[in-house]
Amino acid sequence: MEPTRAPWATAAVPGSQTARQTESSTTHAPWSKSETRRLDVVIRASARFPEPLPESAEDLAWGAARKEILSLDALEQFLKSESMSSFLGFLLCLNQAALGRSLTSSQRRSPAIEALLEILGSLQRLVDSHPPAERSLRYGNPAFRDWMEGMRTAAPQLLEPLLSGAQAAALPELVSYLQDSFGNSTRIDYGTGHETTFAGLLFCLARLGVLEPGDAAGLVLAVFPAYLALMRRLQTTYWLEPAGSHGVWGLDDYQILPFLWGSAQLVDHGDITPGSIHNPAVLQDGKEEYMYLSAVAFVKQVKKGHLAETSPMLNDISGLPSWTRAWHPPPHPRSTPA
Q1: Bridge partners for 121 per DSSP
Q2: How far apart are CA 58 and CA 55, in angstroms?
Q3: Distance CA 157, CA 153 (A)
Q4: Statement: residue 56 has pLDDT above 60
Q5: Mean pLDDT highest for which of 67-81, 225-239, 313-327?
């Protein structure tokens, strides 16, 4: 059966008219038109599950999360902050937890992990209640707005069972992160910023003590794949436009973390190499076990054309001699361009 294709995902050779049109649609940062200087920031972090907030933080004034990084100075301050270092350390900790492990490998399922899986399951079922509208559009089915409204309404009740005692005061902020993890209802789009927000929600739950170090494997091998499954269903049900896509110059229109954590899963795999992504049988047989293969299979499902044309960066990675080269973090983070 012919795979479903995204309506915008025509193969585009870098530099072609189609590629330039895709690149020009990138969503820019709020300061990008007036400030163009380069930020040279080294973010120092080690793989570490975040420490819970101290008891003295119980009296913090919690509220709905709001945008605070509205200038390059604010961005630079955040990138140099302990919060940024701790968040990156959390992502690297989950990276380590995925190392050499398949999605079906044995992992701890704490009540918090089970609760997160139930939240994502509830949001999957919500899609059934909001079928796509029957109208012809290039992308962006308006029924997505109905799903988003249902999700926003349900968010407080979905998160509340995770919290106990003083943790409950943080509910308004956690709700904001959950509500912004699935896309933008005005633009009907989704991108890596929304994916990062979901990771931010998990980080906040760890800081609150809801999640513990023993939950790392469950987060990366169970919760995050369930989130990916939901997002792929939303993307292909409502045809969400890529948010802030770099077109053929980007790794992927929608995700980044399944490639990072997915390559960690495949380190030292005896049979699957980076070049194996060009083998349809390997993708078909391995996509339920390995996030990287699942991500590439999804790219091929929604984009027309050869991988070298639609996703040249993924194609380049396939030429690496080992997954260690694809996965292993550099000895120090790169500078961050504005």
Answers
A1: none
A2: 6
A3: 8
A4: no
A5: 225-239
